[in-house]
Amino acid sequence: MGIAAESVGEDVLRQHAEDAFAEELAALAAADERPRPPRWRLSPWAVATYLLGGTLPDGTVISPKYIGPRRIVEVAVTTLATDRALLLLGVPGTAKTWVSEHLAAAVCGDSTLLVQGTAGTPEEAIRYGWNYARLLAHGPSRAAMVAGPVMRAMSRGLVARVEELTRIPADVQDSLITILSEKTLPVPELNDEVQAVRGFNLIATANDRDRGVNELSSALRRRFNTVVLPLPATADAEVEIVGRRVAQLGSGLELPPVAGAEAELRRVVTVFRELRAGLTEDGRTRLKTPSGSLSTAEAISVVTGGLALAAHFGDGVLRSADVAAGILGAVVKDPVADTLVWREYLETAVRPRADWQDFYRACRDADPA
Ligand SMILES: Nc1ncnc2c1ncn2[C@@H]1O[C@H](COP(=O)(O)OP(=O)(O)OP(=O)(O)O)[C@@H](O)[C@H]1O
Ligand SMILES: [Mg+2]
Asked: Matching SUPFAM superfamilies, A to Z (predicted)?
């Protein structure tokens, strides 16, 4: 419960998964008769259903959160019921953070025990810090300790999350080794320790492209089961992912309804997939690939931005001009090299398509040169 959360209630800009989907989670818990691991809110089967979607015997519809291979979700969920921690690995925008939040919400009802990994993450963020006023007044004691998210998860038997694990300096990463192998956090200042309660586990995420920044030590890697989240396998799957998220985001932002989004959405996804693959959909034309990752997550923001433009400044229909600037911004990360890649794509792949002429013109207009 955060500061002023009571007075703000449902008006927060972004709800935690366990609040946004509280009804689904309650319906699943009520219908769930399978065995639950210690302190889990749901059985592994129900957690997987929460992530993948489904219909309960009483007719409650559980919306899919993750669209992708069922097996991946099953392995991720069962890992959390073992003594190994879970590492979600993948290129940017493959829903690693998203899946980690929903897993924590479904397993223990709390997705907020989060450490954001950066090059500057200190050991205290993973272990504990001190309330210096108390420390100076009364010396080191349990009461003077300020528990970090991982320590709180350990003492309450919950799931902790570490975002971007590989960005954390190696020596700080290593403070996780004892936690994950011995399930205890030594407190040398008190000659004491905090032992993990049953139910504790940890989900870390790491970006493929960051690998090598601070490669995981093999000692730490052995404590994790690694699950790789793939890019959407087909254009249809990616259209579905983008469509669902855009609809959710749009209703959260209370955008007025916009017509004709489907066609433009498919076009955005096609452009992203073609540039990512370096090949047109028909397999005939080779393309240069831009430097950025062109992730599904970026496709979601391009379409959401386009919808906002269409809703507030357009005629209520999503048109090419509404997404063109967003696409340009997503593709051109390096102003020189990517601009060339983009223009070549427009001329070789887009221009010849008879039904893409409005899109071609909109993209030409959006290009500042
Ligand atoms: N397969 C998928 N199923 C459902 N949603 C997806 C899928 N792939 C991407 N998304 C959506 O993409 C958005 C971004 O995902 P997220 O931020 O979790 O990516 P990430 O893998 O953590 O990226 P990064 O490496 O940049 O941190 C989320 O809103 C999520 O809904
Ligand atoms: Mg992430």
From this structure: P-loop containing nucleoside triphosphate hydrolases (SSF52540)
Which atom in ligand 1 lies closest to the alpha carbon of residue 99?
18
- Whether 280 has a pLDDT exceeding 60, the answer reads yes
Q: What is the CA radius of gyration of the chain?
A: 23
Of 87, 67, 105, nearest to 207 by C-alpha is 87
Strands 201-207, 85-90: pairing is parallel
Give the tens place of pLDDT for each residue, 79-133.
999 999 999 999 999 999 999 999 999 999 999 999 999 999 999 999 999 999 9
* Among 52, 63, 73, 97, residue to substitute to test ligand 1 (most atoms within 8 Å of Cβ): 97
Helices and strands per DSSP (H, E), number in the chain: 18, 11
**What predicted TM-score, i.e. pTM, was given to this entire model?**
0.92
Nearest residue to 325 (alpha-carbon basis) of 347, 308, 344:
308
- Asked whether 276 and 289 are in contact (CB, 8 A), the reply is yes
Short-list 84, 98, 82, CA closest to 44: 82
Among 87-91, 247-251, 252-256, 330-334, the range scoring the smallest mean pLDDT is: 252-256
283 CA from centroid of ligand 2 (Å): 31
DSSP line for 195-244? EPPTT-EEEEEEEGGGTTTSPPPHHHHTTEEEEEPPPPSSHHHHHHHHHH
38 φ/ψ angles, rounded to the nearest 5 degrees: -50, 130
Q: Are 50 and 65 in contact (CB under 8 A)?
A: yes
Lowest-confidence segment of 80-84, 198-202, 205-209, 302-306 by average pLDDT: 205-209
